[in-house]
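Worked example

This section walks through a single chain of length 503. The input is the sequence exactly as stored; nothing has been trimmed or padded.
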Amino acid sequence: MVQHKPDLTDIRLLIIDPKPSPLGSLSRYFESLGGKVTFAKTIEDAANLLDRNNIQVVLIAIHPMGKATCIGKDCAVDKASQAGKTSPVDKSSVQVIDEASNGLVKGFVKRLLKRYESPGRLFYLIGTDSSADTIPDLFTDGIEDYLHFGIEPERFAQMVELRLGRLTGNSTALAVVDPLVVRLRPYFQFRSPAMYQALANLPGIAASSQTVLISGETGVGKEIVARAIHVLSKRADGPFFAVNCGAIPEGLIEDELFGHEKGAFTGATSRRLGKFEGASGGTLFLDEIGDMPMLLQVRLLRVLEDNQLYRVGGEKPVPIDVRVIAATRIDLYKAVEDGLFREDLYYRLNVLRVHLPPLRQRLEDIPYLALYFLGRAFAEMGIISPYPSLSPATIDLLEQLPWKGNVRELRNVMTRVATLLPQDITQVLPIHVYPHLEDRPKETVNLNMAKDDSGICIPLGTPLARAEDIIIRHTLNYTGGNRTKTARLLNIGLRTLRRKLNN
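Given that input, the structure is written out below as tokens.
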């Protein structure tokens, strides 16, 4: 598949790192796409550049130093810091208490964000597997993600372009997406390019009054998207009703949707309003629309076309004012071809479309969601933070799983982990996760890997192409992004490595 080449024209990137060599290829590729890259070796240099320039992206390099995590030159230990003395560093009033401590890094990151965070500026942390263990302590609301030095320049460029809302085509204007993300965060936790693409048009869809068809596998969050559309729409003050078309018996679903008149059938002792009337002025969500009986599809089509309905046993039309959002886990177009779904209803529902990708296509979201669900489970149990972090090996394991139940399955797994995790555990290892997997591999390699182990965990049954990708990616991380050294360690030619990376 030919991918869109990112357009980074006039986007400025600031890399805070005294060692630009691991990020040399990234900076060169960034500039080849029209962007501008500036390096800062010290905290003071970074502050001066941020004061004088309109910088949209800030990349903060995190380097391990013994047991500490450090930023740039300013992590060097001097006599003053060892003595516990403080000294001013830059305009952001960062105080150096112990320059080799993780506290300095955390303080620097928070103070940098407090002074320079804005809706149109992105902050990323970047480091190695060795520094990853302390990253959860450094995360704040303003940090977009933690990246590895081995990240492909193309992938980083795509992340920046999508995150800043760069419009495709000939336009080079920037549309700030951050207000959208802030509005969606109560409903969604994501940072993958795939989800940004899937939800990019959500404000426009919400502002419209047209019907919406949401597609995606079980557990990807279709009802959450429907609720977000409702909340962001002009109908937000109205009711939101959800009906699962596959969970209601065929003989009852008509009454559930359209209601009935008194005496319509035995036992109908009074008039009953259906979900269409109940949702008047709001939104009606029809989940699993593909399971709706064919005869009822005819009635639904007529209701959508005429904006009125007939209750069961009724003779007078009842006007309705409701927006319909439908969702399906199956391919409705194929169902139409197979004669299982009405073609006219398909086109009536498929006016505006949102397709949610499965979790296996959103690898960037897996560790982010896992930490989110883990923390939420601990909070629900009344446990006070800080919570245990995920080891690199655990993240590897989670990213390799098929997640047939998607986000719902990941949420359930992390809830089990939090509930049954032994006390005094500060880091979740693969051995803590493995017993709670529903669709787990029969055997894994290095399952009980220590957090400082440089090995990787590949479950048996992993497709060969995926295993190869995992090995290449981790070797790149190990070499700090040095492709020549990576090719030598893997005993393949540099040209072969480049071809595999491009594929």
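What to look for: The first strand starts at residue 12 and ends at 16.
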